[in-house]
Amino acid sequence: MNQTLKSFFLIAKSNLNSHKHIVRDFGYFLKSLGISDSIIALEDDLNLTKEQIKKIDIFFSSYINGLPLDYILEESVFYGNNFFVDPRVLIPRQETELIVDWALELELMNNSVISEVGTGSGCIAISIALQRPKIKIIASDISSPALEVASKNIEFYNLKNISLIQSSLISFVKDESIDLVISNPPYINSNDPHLKDLMHEPKIALISNNGAKIFFEIASQAINVLKKGGKIIFEHGFKQAGDVSEILKECGFKNILSKKDLQGIDRYTHAEKI
């Protein structure tokens, strides 16, 4: 006899003490299986297929072992769009949407060229490209597995204005050919206690063993590849705004400005090549 949906809700509720959002997240997962909102809301005594039971068993095993819901669903929402994600890339964060807002506020011309360093899933580049289809974007990443994910997302949205390049930085870019460099590079220290909550995400996209050096490496190349009047935008870590601003100044940038994230923390720094 098949297990019913109600029996699985009982399993979810039995884990509420250790996983307070499990019932809610189980509901999200059931929607991905095509089960209707009304049946989920009623925790209906629905008979499930063998394939559905197999997938639900995998959900509970993965979830209870700490795998983030976005990886289980293989989907994350960013800037109002759905993106394929898996453990090859970081899960997009809501606060990173603000770096897209800032880029779009620059009102770049239709023939402008953007270079994104460390594209990961491609969520930043794709979000900009969907809003500005006549702008060309060169999105790079050192990780070939991450570029596979980005390529899948670009193909899903059928975008022709994004090129993917495997590279750690932007030395491959021609001098004075770029209008905007944008980057959310790895900036977390390897001994940061918050890393324990990110154990399933790729360390290469999170950890910087050289502090703010990654920002210098990008900025020192960006000052050459940017056109006169070109801009650079960084997302950076807690209490890094001062260091990043000094680095940008050292590299020759002007009009340096930081903005706060949704928590009121200086999280983004912008500068201009004069």
Structural overview:
The chain has 274 residues and is of the alpha/beta class. It folds into 2 domains: 5-66; 88-272, Rossmann fold (3-Layer(aba) Sandwich). It contains 10 helices and 9 strands. It has helices at residues 5-14, 22-32, 37-42, 50-64, 69-73, 97-105, 123-131, 144-156, 213-225, 241-250; strands at 76-78, 81-83, 113-117, 136-141, 162-166, 178-183, 226-235, 254-260, 266-272. The protein has a 7-stranded mixed sheet, sandwiched between helices. It has a two-stranded antiparallel sheet with strand order 1-2. Strand 4, helix 8 and strand 5 (162-166) form a beta-alpha-beta unit. Helix 2 runs antiparallel to helix 4 and helix 6 runs parallel beside helix 7. The chain starts with a helix and ends with a strand.
CATH architecture of the largest domain: 3-Layer(aba) Sandwich
CA-based shape: elongated
- Give the uncertain stretches in residue-range form: none
Largest sheet: 7 strands, mixed
List descriptors.
274 residues, alpha/beta, Rossmann fold, 2 domains, seven-stranded mixed sheet, two-stranded antiparallel ribbon
